């Protein structure tokens, strides 16, 4: 996490307690409602919300521009309720890492560190993402997509915000 030139960093504040936001990041029943770009649906094939566990899922976009894509997290660290570290990337239906069809030069793996800070009943989430063992071309593609990633994560976090607002209790 040392290279500020290549890291993607995004901050977002949620009107929910830290413990609840943490659950949104680590429990399949919640991830299914908000993970992925705005407008997609998630089908979870496997989820083990623990260090060494896997979150294997399919994102469907209603047929456009692609029918669906598989993704995978490998949870490295889960420290309730303040930190989640996972490696994500594209996958095939069996869960093996693969190159994305729409982004063939994208890094095979990206390490994401999410920290949560309590702010008077609200939660500030900081996402820090960096490619792992990426070629110069893959790093350049990652950096070139920072603005698009901000929009994509922003859309996902908009969906998370709406999902949090619908929950019967915020803590």
From TrEMBL:
- Output the Gene3D superfamilies linked to this UniProt entry: 3.30.530.20
Task: Using the record's annotation, list all stretches that form the Activator of Hsp90 ATPase homologue 1/2-like C-terminal domain.
Answer: 15-164
Which Pfam family would be a valid example here?
A: AHSA1
Family in the record: Belongs to the AHA1 family.
Q: What is this protein called?
A: SRPBCC domain-containing protein
What is the taxonomic lineage of the source species? Bacteria, Pseudomonadati, Pseudomonadota, Betaproteobacteria, Burkholderiales
